[in-house]
Write a structure and sequence with these properties.
Low-confidence stretches: 1-63, 359-371, 499-510
Keywords: Metal-binding, mRNA processing, mRNA splicing, Nucleus, Spliceosome, Zinc, Zinc-finger
Number of strands: 26
CATH class of the largest domain: Alpha Beta
Distance between the termini: 26 Å
CATH topology of the largest domain: Cathepsin B, Chain A
Organism: Trametes cubensis
GO molecular function, one term: cysteine-type deubiquitinase activity
Protein name: Spindle pole body protein
Structural class: alpha+beta
Number of domains: 2
Radius of gyration: 26 Å
GO cellular component, one term: spliceosomal complex
Bound molecules: zinc ion
CATH architecture of the largest domain: Alpha-Beta Complex
């Protein structure tokens, strides 16, 4: 398959602009005004009294005029190549998470900046002098203890804490986004949002879910525009922080580690979803959506959070209407003769026939009794789960059936109870999660590989590209290759504009 893909590094464009040379730029010498601001900042810092590692150093230097030359020299020791701020913000010595500073010379984290603090000790023992407060993004020179406010540090603050505006996110899902790649420190081009996520141990099953959710525009935009600094849950804060890093147009390294977020997932789930062992992406998705919904302030009511407005639909089972966040559909049973599987004659079905299980006209036998499904309401984004794994008494069995689906224009009308009064029933695919393992039908957890296909650009034709991401490997993939994988999970987006028949682009409708 690798011969069929084009590497992202072939994207052409202008290189990342050179960093401003601080020492060569006379215009950036502190003016009387910046001196005054620095002094005022020092005074303010001194009064905040953040913790016991506190501010006595800053207070003691209050009013002194620091020689600007010293800070110039120290800023020159900053090593951006070792900075990413992806790891859990705890002191490398005390393991505390309170009042943590990052050393901008070596990238390590230390607590406090007062005379008895670990950052202070690091400055003296290791001769590293520039530290950033990981909460406030303010930069200090230690052991002197003064605040540095310099425009050349702004890119570091942006990597630590990226910010977005409605204008800056308006084109993320449009072809325009593909036309302006970003450049990392090594001048390697990347497309924000389509970057690798580290697989720390066995967390690829969570990486594909993270990527899928962060490409659903309403949820993505909600997270990118958020400013959680209060009593929100740590899980929500860290997921929003991860979203901002994945879509950051000014990364130093064109990859992100989900470590900080996954540590919190591990804590909240009491070890059920761990970095250390393979898990089920569909179970993880359900768990994460429910936690995000609750943490954003959602209730049992319709539309009470961006999770519900985006993903919640309604299905009728017998006489009860139940809300759903995703639809789980069965695959037809694989052939009884395992020979045909071993000879790579893989059964195929169309997505329409799989979805027909939801047709109100049909019944489905399950757990010994008949169930009837009728979709009453489809959400703006439909999550489909293809139930590929079934547990028998001894092992988990995998159904290798390939599902054939179009990338655009899937009509869900047939699976609705009352299609006439429903908004558009035409959906386009935006994310597709596939499973790969050794030959055979048993689910081999040791050799399992999870991959995600993500749409970029949108609109079909030349405007739309697809990327396949497997942890750190990001490759453009040809559209016709996408259906060949063992799909487990898909996210479909309702087409809001009227189907166009005039531009001739939209020929791939089902
Ligand atoms: Zn250091």
């Amino acid at each position: 398959m690798t011969s069929e893909v084009k590497h992202l590094s072939s994207v052409e464009g202008s290189p990342r602009p050179a960093k401003r040379a601080r020492l060569d730029d006379g215009a950036s010498a502190p003016t009387a005004e910046t001196e005054e601001r620095m002094n005022a900042s020092r005074a303010a810092e001194g009064m905040e009294g953040e913790d016991e590692y506190g501010e006595e150093t800053a207070t003691s230097t209050k009013g002194q005029v620091e020689p600007p030359k010293a800070s110039d020299l120290y800023l020159d020791t900053i090593n951006r190549a070792v900075l990413d701020f992806d790891f859990e913000k705890v002191c490398s010595v005390s393991l505390s998470n309170i009042n943590i500073y990052g050393c901008l010379v070596c990238g390590k984290y230390f607590q406090g900046r007062g005379r008895n603090s670990y950052a202070f000790a690091h400055a003296i023992h290791d001769d590293h002098h520039v530290f950033i407060n990981l909460e406030t993004t303010k930069v200090y020179v230690l052991p002197d203890g003064y605040l540095v406010s310099d425009p050349s540090l702004e890119d570091i603050a942006f990597v630590l804490s990226p910010t977005f505006t409605p204008a800056s996110i308006a084109t993320l899902s449009t072809p325009v986004h593909l036309q302006k790649p970003s450049y990392d420190l090594a001048n390697k081009p990347y497309i924000p949002g389509y970057i690798g996520l580290n697989n720390i141990k066995r967390n690829d099953y969570m990486n594909v879910v993270i990527h899928s959710l962060l490409h659903v525009p309403p949820l993505r935009d909600h997270l990118l525009l958020s400013n959680y600094r209060g009593k929100e849950s740590e899980l929500l804060k860290r997921f929003a922080g991860l979203a901002k890093k994945v879509w950051n147009p000014r990364l130093f390294k064109s990859q992100v580690s989900p470590h900080e977020f996954l540590q919190e997932v591990n804590r909240i789930s009491a070890g059920k979803y761990s970095l250390e062992k393979q898990g089920d992406p569909v179970e993880f998705l359900g768990w994460l959506l429910n936690h995000l919904h609750k943490d954003i302030g959602g209730t049992k009511k319709k539309n009470s959070s961006v999770v519900f407005t985006t993903f919640q639909g309604e299905v009728q089972i017998k006489s009860t209407v139940s809300p759903f966040l995703f639809l789980a559909v069965d695959l037809p049973p694989p052939p009884l003769f395992q020979d045909s599987v071993e000879k790579n004659i893989i059964p195929q079905v169309s997505i329409q026939s799989v979805l027909a299980k939801y047709d109100g006209q049909k019944t489905q036998e399950s757990a010994g009794h008949l169930r009837r499904f009728k979709c009453q309401r489809l959400p703006p984004y439909i999550i489909l789960h293809f139930k590929r794994f079934t547990k028998n008494q001894f092992v988990e069995e995998k159904n290798p059936t390939i599902v054939n689906f179009p990338l655009r224009g899937l009509d869900f009308k047939e699976y609705l109870d009352a299609p006439e009064s429903h908004p558009s029933t035409i959906y386009d695919l935006i994310a597709n999660v596939t499973h790969e393992s050794a030959v055979g039908t048993t689910h081999d957890k040791e050799s399992t590989v999870w991959k995600v296909h993500l749409r970029a650009g949108a609109g079909g034709g030349e405007n739309e590209k697809w990327f396949q991401i497997q942890d750190l490997i990001v490759e453009e993939i040809r559209k016709e290759m996408i259906v060949l994988g063992e799909t487990i999970l898909q996210i479909w987006e309702r087409r809001t504009d009227a189907p166009s028949t005039t531009n001739g682009m939209d020929v791939d409708r089902a």
